[in-house]
């Protein structure tokens, strides 16, 4: 079932949505609505070129990484030991989200249009979104960004301009969270890349217990 959202700051029960997680359309990308959404495991995702309304997803099967379970392969350890790159947090959110959008802008399903980008930049300005940057000298070589609420990080997108830069960003994020009491990195959907780094499936109910914990 797909619900239509109006101007009220509320969401219907996502358990009634489609198997792929889509359960609502409409609404807006205001900071208050986005915080409410992520607090309930909901995120916007839509191809801005053809969709005239925001699509809201909340899969009942969640793919996550627990920070202490991050898998660092031998090849990644070797890369990290070489010290070729510097990793920072929140040094350049704008450049990270811009790079994520530009690398996909030519694809039909590109979702990081002007409205989405501005919404997440506002979240960042208000302290609810963060980035991890990988630097090759003064050049941004990769990174990721997502939403931060409580002890959870809700990953949105990542990019690499050199091999394994996004993996390096994710490892840095997981280790930082493990050291500072972080509970979970939400990956939204499974990919081979994320599964190889320790991602696993949990139920929506378990997911929400962690988010609310």
Written overview of the protein:
With 213 residues, this protein is of the alpha+beta class. Helices cover 32% and strands 27% of the residues. It is built from seven helices and eleven strands. The protein has helices at residues 31-39, 74-82, 93-102, 114-125, 165-179, 192-195, 204-212; strands spanning 3-5, 22-26, 43-44, 55-57, 61-65, 86-89, 129-136, 139-149, 152-160, 184-186, 200-203. It has a seven-stranded mixed β-sheet with strand order 6-7-8-9-10-5-11, with helices on both faces. Strands 1-2-4-3 form a four-stranded mixed β-sheet, with helices on one face. The radius of gyration is 17 Å and the shape is globular. The model has no long low-confidence stretch (mean pLDDT 94).
The residue fraction in helices comes out at 25-40%
What's the total helix number?
Answer: 7
Biggest sheet, open or closed, and with what strands and sense?
7 strands, mixed
Please mark out the parts with pLDDT under 50 across 5 or more consecutive residues, or reply none: none
Distance between the termini: 29 Å
> How many β strands by DSSP?
11
| Molecular shape | globular
Q: How confident is the prediction overall: mean pLDDT?
A: 94
Rounded to an integer in angstroms, the radius of gyration calculated over CA atoms is 17 Å
Label the structural class.
alpha+beta
Strand content: 25-35%
Q: Which sequence of SSEs, written as H and E, runs from N to C? A: EEHEEEHEHHEEEHEHEH
Tell me the strand order in the biggest sheet.
6-7-8-9-10-5-11
InterPro entries: Acyl_CoA_acyltransferase (IPR016181), Leu/Phe-tRNA_Trfase (IPR004616), Leu/Phe-tRNA_Trfase_C (IPR042203), Leu/Phe-tRNA_Trfase_N (IPR042221)
Pfam family, one: Leu_Phe_trans
Protein name: Leucyl/phenylalanyl-tRNA--protein transferase
GO cellular component, one term: cytoplasm
